[in-house]
Specification:
single chain; mainly alpha; 2 domains; 2 helices; 3 strands; 10% strand; binds zinc ion
C-alpha cells in the first residue's frame, strides 16, 4: 500500500468517524433541548464537543484528499515531460546536419531535452516551451 492509498483510506475513515461524531453530537444537542433532559447544560457541552471533533475530522479528511490530489497532479506533470520527450525524439532532426535522431541520441535531464547527433557529433540542448 503506497502513501497515496493510505492517505485515501485514512481520509475515508476520518470522514466516517466524523459522521458518527456529528450524529452523536446532534443527538446530544437535540436531547439537551427536549423537555425530559435531566442535565441540559451537560448534554449541550458534550454535543458541542462532539460536533467540534466531527468538524475537525472533516477538515483533516479534506486536507488529506487535497494533498492526495496535489500528488496526482505532480505525477501527471512528470508523465507529460516523458511524453513530450518521446514525441520530440521520434520526429526530431539534427539542427546542424538535418539527420534524423532516434531516442538513443536524445536524452531528457531535469525536463530539458539534450541532443547528441550520431552523424555530425553536434551536442546541444533543445529549449522546450512549457506545455502546462
Ligand atoms: Zn547532426
Amino acid at each position: 500500500m503506497d502513501s497515496k492509498t493510505l492517505g485515501t483510506v485514512v481520509s475515508v475513515i476520518m470522514f466516517v468517524v466524523a459522521a458518527l461524531f456529528l450524529g452523536c453530537g446532534a443527538l446530544f444537542l437535540l436531547s439537551a433541548f427536549s423537555a425530559q433532559a435531566a442535565d441540559p447544560g451537560g448534554r449541550l457541552c458534550i454535543g458541542g464537543v462532539l460536533v467540534i471533533i466531527a468538524l475537525a475530522g472533516v477538515a483533516g479528511g479534506i486536507f488529506l484528499v487535497a494533498r492526495a490530489r496535489m500528488a496526482d497532479q505532480k505525477v501527471v506533470i512528470e508523465q507529460k515531460i516523458d511524453l513530450t520527450g518521446d514525441i520530440e525524439s521520434k520526429g526530431l532532426t539534427c539542427q546542424q546536419c538535418g539527420a534524423p535522431l532516434d531516442s538513443n541520441s536524445v536524452s531528457i535531464t531535469g525536463g530539458a531535452v539534450f541532443v547528441k547527433c550520431p552523424y555530425c557529433g553536434a551536442n546541444y540542448q533543445i529549449i522546450e516551451e512549457p506545455k502546462w
